[in-house]
Amino acid sequence: MEAGQLDRTGFEAALDRLLAQLGQKLPVDAAAQPTLAAPVLKTVRDSAHVLVLGDPGTGKTTLLRYLAFTHARAMLDGVPLEGRAALFPVYVRISEYARHGFPHKGLGEFLASDAGRLECPVARLPDLLRQQLEAGRCLILLDGLDEVASAQLRRDVVGAVVNFVTAHTRAGNRFVVTSRIAGYQAAPLPQPFAAVRLQDMDDDTITRFLEVYCREVERAEAPCRAPLQSWPEGCVRPPLLARRSRRMPGYVDWR
To answer: Which of 1, 17, 65, 157 is the most exposed place for a label (fewest CB within 10 A)?
Structure first.
């Protein structure tokens, strides 16, 4: 390949960045495949291998952090989560693995060392992670498959992710991976990952989100005051918050 040229992966990544700067989304052929809308949390709960695709800002990272928080809190409290045992959540930015681990470390080895690098030293953490993985009690959250800069490096990192998933699937661990839509097809994940695409929130969902959001913010800032039960009459919703809320994860299209 001559200098200054892009392969397919690099071209799609560059296009994605351009569309993000212009505030546009990558067009998707809606007629290519029939879609079925489903709540994103139900989709993740019912599937052991989920690939979450979405345009920039649709809430992919927010979704993974929410899953990590809810499972960790349920484990600490010793309570089930939606009728099932909570899992040991492990959140990793794939770009960090590409930068600090690959190719000298496999993804499994990187998990423990990454916690130490982020100033989260825990005695015998590698042993704990190995035990949880061998027992099939982990929820592995891999964020930003598309964020690996080099096209060839991205393909190699995808191979490392596939090796890790294959090695730890049989025990019963669960996996959620996120990626932007642009650039994904050049280095896709194979079966058994089920690909879903995040939808924008509709007006009714935005309204419900803002009501809960504002109530919880008020409760956190003034815990002694009774929280609002609904929007005061005549109150104008903040337009910026409404626009951002439309991109939060709520539903997915199965593809």
So the answer is: 1
